[in-house]
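Internal QA ticket QA-208
Title: Verify multi-chain structure generation after dependency bump
Assignee: T.L.

Test input:
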Amino acid sequence: MTVVQPTKIVCVGRNYAAHARELGNEVPREPLLFFKPPSSLIGPGDAIVLPAASQQVEYEAEIGVVIGKRARKVRERDAMAYVRGFTCANDVSARDLQKTDGQWGRAKGFDTFCAVGPVVAEGLDWGRLEVIGRLNGEERQRGHTRDMVFSIPVLIEYISHIMTLEPGDLILTGTPEGVGRMQAGDVVEVEIPGIGALRNPVIGEDA
Ligand code: MG
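Actual output:
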């Protein structure tokens, strides 16, 4: 079971300057958006399946924003009234395919490539959230909402001026530096203090 049932999953790329640089990219002047299909969703404890088509599947620990109320052309100062809460998310990415394809539909869209949970936490201060990524118990990523290039309210304003956000829709707000490859047998974890930890085992496609 997944903790959210979104009509769409809107993701933001390169929203932490240090992560943009670690992959050799410029910091964007406007939010860089892409999608993951709802069919990629899994919940806590579910296995992330490494597709045979990729040799380089990476974790990306992110803060997930769950929309609570239909949002269309919302202003930054009103944005948080449209949010139900926050959750931990792993924007699993086939980095080799992301580089070769140009469009990211395949690299970001395989089944099991969007782990979310363990709960949607309400009432937290969006400006004081921290996200930690661990591989096999070892910390690899740590980011804070103050380090985002575009804040959560700015993202909601920007996205809702393009597309209507429906209750349950999910925004993945970008990953801090420290992304890396996962292999079969690994356990990957995304923790947001105040929410909890999302833990997923990694298996090969033929397992
Ligand atoms: Mg990401």
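Spot checks passed. The longest strand covers residues 83-91.
Status: verified.
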